[in-house]
Design a protein that fits this description.
With 335 residues, the chain is an alpha/beta fold. Helix content is 37%, strand content 11%. It has helices spanning 10-25, 47-56, 74-88, 102-105, 118-121, 126-130, 135-146, 150-169, 208-212, 244-250, 275-286, 303-313, 326-329, and strands at 34-38, 64-68, 93-101, 180-183, 193-196, 234-242.
């Protein structure tokens, strides 16, 4: 609601991101067979406006578009879906993207469906009812069940902010951030625009003393605060994916290799702990040990679930989100 992108429509963000993906890589738009877009909160699943953005970015009718909703992992699922399609031989090049305006689409329902069948809202199956437990309450559930104290959460949050601020100072994010035209007002027309080139949620100088003054945000007597929760943010992302053969044909140099992906299910009332089960499963499938990995990037929906995942997997905390995470940088359902 207060960020620099708050007045910019998600389809405007997505179009800009896709245009820059094309210009930075030099990929011909007609070589991209499909664009998969993670979109959670937008009307009609975001399909119509995402398709408009893709076409506005210069992709022709031969490029297909679909949207994906796997909640917080939607853009990751878009990547997995595009990679799987390429491995199956459906096409050789695609783009995995994600876009969301939490400002425009999160309120007033805050991620809870305004219409739920009464028979399910009062279902005798607790797991069914737990699907609409607010995320902040799931954080409290994780903290209570697994003994993640307020101090542990505050410590993790402080370190996330400090790491992100240091990474910003070093210019670490500049290579992956697209200078974006953002509206300064929705009305009147024509709108005025400004250019944003950095995440605006990172807070330097966060201390344990400052965090300790924040009241619980979701439950009276709870341990999760605004300081140990991820920010609600607006933004978009995109990644070009293709076979090595296609990359060589187009004269493009790969910067990363997609190897494998897995998903793991956990009780709905304990949202956020799935990495504790997905990561060991993934490592097993690719024949690696947790100590073989130099850097882990784990979603920081809340400090409680982040701390639990690190403890459960047995990770070296120094390897996890070394440039900060969502508590500092912000997160949205789809990206």
């Amino acid at each position: 609601m207060k960020g620099g992108l708050a007045k910019t429509y998600p389809e405007e963000l997505l179009s800009q991101i896709l245009k820059t993906t094309v210009s930075r890589t030099g990929v011909p738009t007609d070589a991209v067979r499909e664009v998969a877009v993670g979109a959670v909160l937008q009307q009609l699943g975001g399909q119509k406006v995402s398709a408009m953005a893709v076409k506005d970015a210069g992709f022709g009718p031969e490029t297909t578009i679909h949207t994906i909703n796997r909640q917080c992992a939607s853009s990751s699922q878009a990547l997995s879906t595009v990679a799987a399609s390429i491995k199956l031989g459906a096409y050789e090049a695609g783009i995995a993207a994600g876009v969301e305006s939490m400002t425009m689409d999160y309120f007033p329902h805050r991620g809870i469906p305004p219409r739920v069948a009464p028979i399910l809202r009062n279902s005798p199956v607790q797991e069914s009812k737990d699907v609409i437990v607010p995320m902040g309450i799931t954080s409290e559930n994780v903290a209570e069940k697994y003994g993640i104290t307020r101090e542990m959460q505050d410590q993790f949050a402080m370190e996330s902010q400090a790491k992100a601020y240091e990474a910003q100072k070093r210019g670490f994010f500049k290579i992956e951030i697209v200078p974006t035209q953002a509206r300064t007002s929705v009305d009147p027309e024509p709108d005025e625009w400004t250019t944003l080139d950095a995440d605006d949620g990172v807070r330097p100088g966060v201390t344990m003393e400052k965090l300790a003054k924040l009241p619980p945000a979701f439950r009276e007597g709870g341990t999760t605060t605004a300081g140990s929760s991820s920010q609600i943010t607006d933004g978009a992302s995109a990644m070009l994916v293709m076979t090595r053969r296609k990359a060589e044909e187009l004269g493009l140099k790969p910067i990363a290799k997609f190897v494998h992906s897995v998903v793991a299910g956990v009780p709905a009332a304990f949202m956020g702990i799935a990495p504790a089960f997905a990561v060991p499963d993934l490592l097993s499938k690719v024949g690696l040990d947790k100590d073989d990995i130099d850097v882990y990037e784990l979603n920081e929906a809340f400090a409680s679930q982040s701390v639990y995942c690190i403890q459960k997997i047995g990770l070296d905390p120094k390897k996890v989100n070394p440039n900060g995470g969502a508590i500092a940088i912000g997160r949205m359902p789809s990206c």
